[in-house]
C-alpha cells in the first residue's frame, strides 16, 4: 500500500455547548485522521453530532459552543486554537469549504446567482497586506522589470476582449456590448501589465462565474448568471452552491448532507458531479449523511458516529461487508432497499441520546439488543479489527459471547452483486 | 350569453378562495361546462351516501381523462394531461416520479384541494370532481384523508396535540360525548406509539419521527377509507423512515384501507406498495405490480429511476452506470403517436406501436428463458 499523506489530524477532540447554565458534552473524545485525496464519509442519525464535528474544522460553531479539549492539526497549524475572524479568513473557504444541506437557505434570495459567485471570487482574490507591502517596497526599476516580463498591452487587450465576448455575450455582441467589453478589457490589460497585485474586477469575476457554472453543468450559463435563486430548481441550486465552493479551489470540501432534500435522480447526478470534480481538482472530501446507500457510492473510508463519538471506522468495504458494531448493523438493516414485503422493516427503537445528562457506559446500550451488563457501566475502548478497521464495542472483547449479525445483512455482498447483475442484464437486453 | 356570464362569476369565486396557492389553479370555462352541464347549478347526485358502491366494485377511486393546470400570469400551464388511473379497493398504490412531474398535484386533486380542468374523478362510482356541493365535499373528507410531507410545517405550532388530533372528529361530529372523543384520541395515540400524556404537549416538543406519527394519528382518527400519503418520509432519517413505513402498512392491513403512496424513491415504494405507477411530465408512463415493475421495467424513464436507487455495496456502486432519460430518445412520429398500452396482463406502458412490438418481444423472450 502506498504511503498516504495526512491532511487533517484530529486528536481527542471534545466540544461542549453551554445552555441554561449547563455544559453539555456533544463531541466526546474523537480522534481521527483524514488522508489527502480521499473521500471520507461520516454517517449517523440526526443528533449524533456529525455536523457539529465538521463545523469545528471551519470555526462555524454556534456562539454557545466551544472546543473544550483536543487539537485539529492542519498543515502544522492547530485549528482548535484559532479564535478571531481574521485567523479564520485564510482557512475558511480558501482551504476548507462547505456545501450545506439546503441550498435555499445557503443562497441569498435577494441577490443574483452571478453576484453571489462573483462576491466569493472578488473577496478571496484580494491581495494580502504582505503582498501589497512587498510591491510598495520594490524600486522603480524592479517594477519596470515586472511589467516587461508580461505580454504587450495590445496582446492582453485582445485576449481579454475575446474572452469577454465569448463568455459574456456567447460570441454575438451588439455595438454597445462590444464597446463595453473593449473598455473593460483595456482596464484589465493596464492593471495586469503594471504587475501590481490586485483582486478580480467585477467583469473578470463574471467571466469566471460563467466558467464555473459551465463546469457544474448549468445550461446557458451566460443567461442564467443573471437569474435569482428562486428561478433555479433544487438540483440546480445545489450545483450553484458547489460552484461557489469550487471558486476558491479548496483543499478540503465538506459536504453536509448535500443530497438530502433532492430527488433520487438528481441525487445521483449531484454525487456524480462531486466525484468528477474531485478527480479534476484533487481535493479531499468529507461527506456527511444519514443514508448509507449514498455513502456506498462516494466513500473510500467511512466513520459511523453515535452520541458524539465515532463507534466504528474503516474502509467502505470493511463497513459494508464486515460491520462489527451493533449500531452499524442496525443502520444497515433499516435500509428500505433490503426490506422484503413479507416482514416489517427493521428499525432502531428509541431515540438518540440527549446530551443533557452525563452518558455513562456505552451510549448505544439502551437501544442495543446485544447489550451486555458492562455496556451500562464502562465505555468500551476502540478495538482493532484490522489495520484499517476499528470498532468501539465490548462485543469484540476476548471474554464477550459470540453473537451473530442480523440475518438481513448477512451475505449482503452476494445479494447486492446479484441485484447489480440483474440490472446490467436488463440494460443489455434493452440496448440490443 | 347567460352561460358565459355564470362562468365568469365562477372563475372569480375560485380566485378569492385560492389566494394562498402560489400559482392559481383555474377552471377552463368550456370544460367547466362539461363537468357540470347545467351551468352553475350543482351536478345532481342521487342522494345516496358516498360509502354505497355504485357500478364498478373493484376500484375505489378512478380518474378518467383528468387535466390539471395552473395559471401563471396570463398563460395556462397544463401540468397533468389526460390522466387515467383506477385504484383498487384495499391496495397500497405507489405513485413515483421526480419533483415537478405532477404526482402531488394528482394526489391533491383527489382531495379537491386543486380543482381539475377537465375529466372526472369518481369515488365508489360517485362523482367527486367539479361542483358537487359543499355537503358532498365535506362528506368526502371523512372518507379521504392526507398525510403530508413535512411534519414540522403541517402541524399547527400553537395547538396542542389533543387539539390537532381531534380536529377531524370535531369538524365531522364523529363523537357523542367528550369522554368518547378522549377515548378515541387516546386509542389512536397508543396505536401510533405515543402515550396519552403526550396529548397536552405542543408539536415543537417532539422529534421529527414523533411529529410524523402525530400527522398519521390526525389522519387515521377519522377512520378514512382512502389515505393519500404525500411523501411522508422524505424529510426523515433512515432509521425513522422504517418506523413510519411499518406504521402505515399496519394501519392499512388492520383497517383494510386504500393508500395512495406518493414518493420519489423507488426503493421505498417497492417495499410498501402492491402496484406502482410511474409518472413523468404529468403523464403515467408505466403501471405494474411492484414486483413486476422491478423484474421487468420497460419504459426508459422507469429504468433510469431504478438505476438511480443507491445500492448499499461500495464495489457495485463504484462501477454502476446511471441511465439518464431524455424524452427526445423516443423519436415519435406523427403517424405513430404514443399511448398507454397493456404489454402483459396488468402491466401498462406508454409507448407507440414500434416500441410496443419491441417490449412484447422482450417479454416473450424472458418467458422462454424462464421455462428453460
Q: What keywords describe this structure?
A:
heterodimer, A: 4-stranded antiparallel beta sheet, 40% helix, B: alpha/beta, Rossmann fold, 8-stranded mixed beta sheet, 5-stranded antiparallel beta sheet, 13 helices, globular
Describe this structure in words.
The complex is a heterodimer of chains A (432) and B (372). Chain A is built from 16 helices and twelve strands. Chain A is an alpha/beta fold. Chain A has a domain of 103 residues. Chain A is globular. Chain A starts with 5 loop residues before the first strand and ends with a helix. Chain B is an alpha/beta fold and 372 residues long. Chain B has two domains: 280 residues, Rossmann fold, CATH 3.40.50.300; 90 residues, no CATH class. Chain B contains 13 helices and 13 strands. In chain B, the strands form two sheets. Chain B has an eight-stranded mixed beta sheet with strand order 7-8-9-4-10-11-13-12, with helices on both faces. In chain B, strands 1, 2, 3, 5 and 6 form a five-stranded antiparallel beta sheet that branches. In chain B, strand 2 and strand 3 form a beta hairpin. In chain B, helix 5 runs parallel beside helix 7 and helix 7 packs parallel to helix 8. The longest helix of chain B has 19 residues. Chain B is globular, with a radius of gyration of 22 Å. At the A-B interface, helix 12, helix 13, helix 14, helix 15 and helix 16 of A face helix 8, helix 9, helix 11, helix 12 and helix 13 of B.
